[in-house]
Each structure stands twice: as C-alpha cells, then as structure tokens.
Amino acid sequence: MSEIDRDKLLDIYTRTMKVNRTDEKFRALLMQGKVAVMYYCVRGQELVSAAAMAALEDDDYVVCTYRGQGEQTAKGIPIEKWWGECLGKATGTCKGKGGTMHITDPETGIMVTTGVVGSGLPIANGLAMASQNSGDGRVTLVSFGDGAANIGGFHEAMNMAQLYKLPVVFLCQNNRYGEHTAYADHTNSKSIASRAEGYGMRGVTVDGNDVNQIYPAVKEAVDRARAGEGPTLVEAMCYRMMGHFFGSDFSYMPKEHLAEMQAEDPLPKLRAVMLERQFSEEELDQIVADIDAEIDAAVQHALDAPLPDTDEIYKDVLEEVN
Amino acid sequence: MAEITMTQALNLAIDEAMAEDDGVFCLGEDVAAKQGGGVFKITSGLTEKYGEHRIRATPISETAIIGAAVGAALAGQRPIAEIMLMNFVGVCMDQIVNHAAKLRFMSGGQTPCPIVIRTTTGVGVGFGGQHSDMLEAWFAHVAGIHTVTPSNAADARGLMRSAIDANDPVIFIENILCYGLTSEDPGPGYRVPLGKAAVAKEGSDLSIITYGRTVLDALEVAGELEKEGISVEVIDLRTIAPYDEETVLKSVRKTGRALTLHEAVRPFGTGAEIAANIQEKCWDDLKGPVRRIGGTFSAVPFASHLEQAWIPTKAEIVEQIKASVGRV
Ligand SMILES: Cc1ncc(C[n+]2csc(CCOP(=O)(O)OP(=O)(O)O)c2C)c(N)n1
Fold first, then answer.
1. How far apart, in whole angstroms, are the C-alpha atoms of residue A157 and residue A195?
2. Contact indicator for A166, A132 with CB cutoff of 8 Å
3. Which residue has the higher pLDDT, A210 or B327?
4. Which pLDDT value is given to residue A125?
5. Which candidate, B23, B107, B166, B51, places its Cα nearest to that of A129?
6. Contact state of A114 with B106 under an 8 Å Cβ cutoff
7. What are the pLDDT digits (tens) for B112-146?
8. Is the CB of A177 within 6 Å of ligand 1?
9. Best of A125, A150, A165 to mutate (most B CBs within 10 Å, chain B)
C-alpha cells in the first residue's frame, strides 16, 4: 500500500485533533457544570471519523448517530453553529431544535444525525439513490456502531445497497460496546464486516487506531462507490474509552481491557506517524493551540447566544406554519 | 368527457408528475413492469416510459423502502414509496414517525422531507386481521405528516398531484374497494389542495364528517333520509390530518348536529378528536351530543358475515342520525 501523502496526513491530523479537542472541551464544560446536556463521548474514536471525513469530497453526504461529533466537526460544520446547537441556542445549526443527537447541516453534507440505532443506513441508501438517479457523482457515508449491526434496518439496507450498487459507504465504528453490552454478548459473527459477504458485498475490517489502515480503506471504498462499483462495509476496530454517554457508569468495562486498549490509543500513534514523516513537534502543537483557541471562542459565542424564540415550537412542523 | 377509475386516476397523476419532474420516482415491492406493474397495477406502464431507476422494484424491506425515500427526499428528489398494505407500516414506523415526520422540525427547517407513502387497505375483501386495518389515527397523532384519502377517482387524481407537490411527507391511503369507482376524468394537471374538505352533499339537519370509502355510505344514507324529510350534510375530509377544521365547524354551526364516521375502530379514532373539537368550539350551536361511528373494536374478522358485521352499517348510520334529530 502506498504511503498517505504529507498534505493528506496533515489534513487528517488537523481533523483528528479538532475532534479530540472538541471532545475534551465538552467534557470539561460538563464537569464544571457550565452546561448540562446529553453528550456522547468520542474519546478513542477520533481518528476513525477524521480519516473517514478526509476521504470524502466536500459535497459528499454523511449520515451519523448521536455519537457523531467526530463526523460533524471533522466534515467541517462551522464550529460556532455546532456549539450553538449543542447548547440549544438560536444560533445553532438547527435553531436549537435538534440538539446534540440531531445535528443537521446540509451545507457541510451532514444530512441526518439520528438517535435511533441503525436508522441511518436505510436513509443513506436514499441519499445515494438520489445521486445514482441524478448522476451528481456524490458518495454517501453512513457511520454507526457495532450494536447497530443487529438491527433489522442494517440488513435491509445492506441488501438493498448491494442490489442497486448504490454509491454508499457503510462505516461501522466497532468500539466494542453497545451501551452496556460488550460485542461478544450481542454478536456471534467473527466480525461485522464478515456479514457483507452474505449480501454479496465487499467487507473489510481494519485497525481504526492506525491511520495507515483506516484512511486507505475508507478512501478505497469511497473511490469504488464513486466509480459505480457499489457499496463497501468498512469495519473500523476502535475502543470507546469512556462510558456510553458522559457521566454514565462504566463499571461493566473490564479494567484490564481498558488498560490494554489505552495502549492502542490512536492519538499518540498518529503523532508518532507524523513525527516519522518529518512534521515537527512545534508544528503539531501549534495546530492544537490554534484549534483550542478557535473552540474557546466558539464556546463563548454559544454561551452568550440567545435562546430560540418560544414561537419556534410552532415553526417547521409542516411547510406552512400551522 | 371520459370516465376513469380510481386506479387509472392514480396512474395518470403519477405519470404526469414523473413526466414533469425528473426528481419524481417510485419505489416499492413489485412496482416495476417485470413484476407486473404493482399488485394493484397503479404503476403499470410507467417502467416502459421512465426506466427501472425511476420505477424501482424493491426487496421486501419496508424499513429500507421508507428509509431510501427519506434519504432521496433529503437530497432534493420526490419519491413515491409504496407500502403494499397498510398493516405493514408497522414494520417501518421508525422511518415514518422518527425521521420523515420530524426531520424538517429537528433540522430547524433545513431538511424538508417531501415523500409520498402510498398504501392500500380496506375492510370487506376478506383479507382478515393483518391486511385490512385503517390506521390513519397513528399518523394523525404525529406532527409533520399529511394524511390523505380519496373517496372518488377525480379526487384521487387531484389529491395525488397535490401530495407529490407537497414539501412534506404525505401518507396516501387507497381503499381497495374504491379502486374500481369511476368519475368523469378531471383531465391533466388537475389538483385538489391538501387540507381542504369537500361538502359532498349539502344539508341542514345534521353534518356527517367522514372520509374514504364511508363517504359512499354516508351519501347513500343521506339520499334515503332526504325522502323522509331529514336533510343531511356530508363532509368528505379528503385530508384527514391536518384536517379542514373551518369547513367542519361551519357546517356544524349551520346544522347544529354532528356525526363522525370512519371505518377505523371507534376508540381513540380520528372521529374522537374531531368530535371533541366540535363540542369545544360549537357548544352554543349544538342541539345534542356529537355522535361517533367507527369499526368494531376487534381485529377485522375473516368470515364474510362477520366482516360485514364489523364495518359500520348503513342501518347504524340511519339509526344514529334519527336518534340525533329526535325521530326514532
Ligand atoms: C432502536 C434503538 N434501540 C435502543 C436504543 C438505545 N440505545 C442508544 S445507543 C445504544 C447502543 C448502540 O450501540 P452501537 O450501535 O454499538 O453504537 P455506539 O453507542 O457504540 O456508538 C442503545 C441500545 C436506541 N437509541 N435505538
């Protein structure tokens, strides 16, 4: 496999750190009691989202889940709007009516963020079907967890996507847990990707903590989709280093396994790759410092922003205000 | 002018919309030419004209069908999805209720979801408990969806065009027993606006508020009672939700008496909501309680005499009207 070129690597690094710093900031705000909302941590999964978004074009479509911070920020939602929505403000992407679990920003290509496990896959097919019908050349990527692979809609969507050779990429972020249930307690298949074969589809499992595996795998899937060669199921092995949502109990996650997984943390690994490729410590630190400054300003902006007008509850129900 | 059946009316409306807008496409089980153009032939002849991408025969995957319709709508297309029989909406309620109906709202108006979900049902054809239910109340209870059902072929043509034009999801319920009904063809481009009821017959003693196949029963009963000197007004809602409250209240204020009538079971049905609204808003004009007629509160039975006994009968409608106007 050829090396990822330096520009792309820098791009992936920047996106990864954007996801990570956003996650750290969110947890800090929650811990300090400055905000009180549901937040699904992405610690440990930053690289998967960032590499996947780096493999897409700007106008490609993305469907994600409540744990979609990574896709959303890495795809490039303006962060003031992102924070505004998470804090329920009028300045948010959805005027405060969506919230952390329902971020939509069509300009960035984030078309749906769903809170219903496994619901995104059938919708991604539809976005891809529209592209196939209109010939607009777009690819749709849908991200979901390992738990979602046991929902009926997953199987229906896989079958349909392969049947029509839709330009869609199914990205399973196998973080080893579906809420409190460990992978082995919800699935007997040796991998999620192995299920692709049952639909006549291409399926690959890669190490989501290794940029040299995850990026090429998603890129290849995207390229194939765009070339009309149909869908791919990419399973990225990763680890959810925190509880299901911020503040939730995670005593069910064995400590030894956690320690083992911490050794696989994608961030130091990515940094090592960057240094190997002659990026300097200072350069990498500066990127993080710039991101932090940008996030701080966005958070302040969101904290100061107005709440949505109460009348908003009557608007956007149907086209005509009723 | 030529007569058309409701089946032809729906086919013509879809054909016209597809000819005018490349973004309109159909998907559903068996809908394409290879499978015979749909079990009720609504999409017959369209594959030949528009190809297999625009008349997509799908696997038996209701969740994937509606999900795909939702996704395509978000991308700016106007899918018409068929759920072969209304009872099967249970399989894809998540996509309809949590996604189609709410994506406009939850996105702050950014992603409207213009899909038409065509589905068919009806009591009286011996399909039994899992193929006959009218489930409109399930959808009427959810904000963000139009629920529509025509009672005649001309309305079917006009309502289907408006449903396809609409920038929101529409559940379009076709009663199997109405497919063969004929009307004078209203011609190309004909539209019946969503949310507008029709006064199917004027009257002065009592208003029946109904929709779909039971409009026919109401009209028949109204015709008979006319001879006995009871003047019944029949309101065909056409759009069940959000419904034309203005036309309903105006009629009840005029007649002073109201009866809601539907094929769906009576408890928690749409008739209950309409009746409650009438009592609240027309209390001073009412000469008696608003009455409700609906199907029996059981699964739809198979044996034909049981099935017939399950549906609201014309005798029951007559009886309720007479009781209401004080002539038993
Ligand atoms: C249909 C449905 N069932 C149950 C839930 C409750 N729930 C929310 S997240 C979750 C776990 C999902 O796990 P997975 O798909 O692996 O995604 P992850 O949270 O690990 O990203 C469950 C059971 C839900 N939101 N939707």
1. 13
2. yes
3. A210
4. 98
5. B23
6. no
7. 999 999 999 999 999 999 999 999 999 999 999 99
8. yes
9. A125
Give me the DSSP letters along B269-292.
Answer: -HHHHHHHHHHHHHGGG-SSPPEE
Closest residue of chain A to B112, computed from CA coordinates: A319
**Rounded-to-integer distance, Cα A29 and Cα A38, Å:** 12
Question: Structure pTM?
Answer: 0.96
Q: Please provide residue A66's backbone torsions phi and psi, each rounded to the nearest 5 degrees.
A: -45, -35
Pocket of ligand 1 contains residue A178 by CB under 6 Å: yes
E-only strand ranges, B91-145: 116-121
DSSP classification of residue A145: E
What pLDDT is stored for residue A322 in this prediction?
45
pLDDT, tens only, B144-155: 999 999 999 999
Answer positive or negative: Cα dihedral of A267, A272, A275, A276: negative
Task: For residue B85, give both structure tokens.
Answer: 């029989």
Query: For residues A167 and A125, is the Cβ–Cβ distance under 8 A?
Result: no
Residue of the CA atom closest to atom 21 of ligand 1: A145
**Structure token pair of residue B57:** 């025969």
Residues of B whose CB is below 8 A from A157: 63-64, 67
Q: Low-confidence residues of chain A, pLDDT below 50?
A: 321-322
A123 contacts B70? CB cut-off 8 A: yes
A279 Cα to the center of ligand 1, angstroms: 38
> What DSSP assignment string belongs to A217-239?
HHHHHHHHHHTT---EEEEEE--
What is the spatial distance between Cα A92 and Cα A88, in angstroms, rounded to a whole number?
7
Angle of helix A281-304 versus helix A79-86 axis, rounded to 10: 50
Is B159 touching A (CB cutoff 8 A)?
A: no
The answer to whether the CB atoms of B64 and A322 lie below 8 A apart is: no
Q: Helices in chain A by DSSP H: which ranges? A: 6-31, 46-54, 69-75, 79-86, 120-134, 152-164, 183-186, 211-226, 255-262, 266-276, 281-304
Q: Is the CB of A154 under 6 A from ligand 1?
A: no
Q: Measured between CA atoms, how close is B171 to chain A, in angstroms?
A: 14
Q: How many residues does chain A have?
A: 322
Distance CA B171, CA B85 (A): 12
Antiparallel, parallel or unpaired: β B24-28 and B55-57: parallel
The pLDDT of residue B328: 67
Residue of A nearest to B50 (CA): A133
* Interval B54-111: pLDDT, tens: 999 999 999 999 999 999 999 999 999 999 999 999 999 999 999 999 999 999 999 9
Nearest residue by C-alpha to atom 10 in ligand 1: A179
Q: Show the tokens assigned to B111.
A: 């992603």
Give the pLDDT of residue A148: 98
Give residue A156's Cα distance to chain centre. 22
Contact of B78 with chain A, judged by CB distance below 8 Å, is answered with no
* CA separation for the pair B203, B139 (Å, rounded): 31
CB atoms within 10 A of CB A154: 26
Query: Residue B243 C-alpha to ligand 1 middle, in angstroms?
Result: 36
Measure in Å the smallest separation between the Cα of A273 and chain B Cα atoms. 38
Catalytic residues of B: 62, 131
What are the φ/ψ torsions at residue A43 (nearest 5 degrees)?
Answer: -60, 125
Q: How far is CA A321 from CA A88, A153, B169, in A?
A: 21, 33, 15
SS3 of residue A98 by DSSP: coil
- Specify whether the backbone of A200 is left (phi greater than 0), alpha (psi in -120 to 50) or beta: left
